[in-house]
């Protein structure tokens, strides 16, 4: 079971999200928080697989809570679940270490798939958010970004480029291992090396480089 911490200041929203996640049969909400400070405290106490956070919450906003959870509870993946998809929120969330950004207006399956993906160590963005990240998130002109990405990727070995392409396609470490006929520990080592060589903090940022470099389709 995927253990989830759910944080939202509206009890009815939490009830709806809990019901959706429960319908998938593989997710358990182990704790609920009504504000960001409580979310951080519960993350430290329960060590869930995924912390699913709203952005606008009292006492401590979700973005600040996400950064604190990433910093102090390293075994917990963080995903934002919000009605707000403004660029500044997306940029700060992903820059702060979140590996998922989901919209409440999305399909229920999208929520289940997103939680499953980030729990497995992959990244997941709602389509609207993904388009923003691709079009605006890296700054500068599109051709300049593509040239920069290709230059960065050229420093990788052929196997590392292959792994990066699969990360960009949204595959988790176990899925990459199965695709390349490798053990999962070897894939983890490759992913860590790729992140280090590219100078990025997480799989979301690596996926952006992979897309810009042409390793994955639009």
UniProtKB/TrEMBL annotation:
Transmembrane stretches in the record are: none
Domain of life the protein comes from: Bacteria
What InterPro entries is this protein classified in? CheY-like_superfamily (IPR011006), NreC/VraR/RcsB-like_REC (IPR058245), Sig_transdc_resp-reg_C-effctor (IPR016032), Sig_transdc_resp-reg_receiver (IPR001789), Tscrpt_reg_LuxR_C (IPR000792), WalR-like (IPR039420)
List residues of the HTH luxR-type domain: 149-214
CDD domains (alphabetical): LuxR_C_like, REC_NarL-like
Recorded hits in Pfam families, A to Z, give: GerE, Response_reg
Q: What is this protein called?
A: Response regulator transcription factor
Q: Print the keywords alphabetically.
A: DNA-binding, Phosphoprotein, Transcription, Transcription regulation
Q: Which residues carry this modification: 4-aspartylphosphate?
A: 54
- Response regulatory domain residues: 3-119
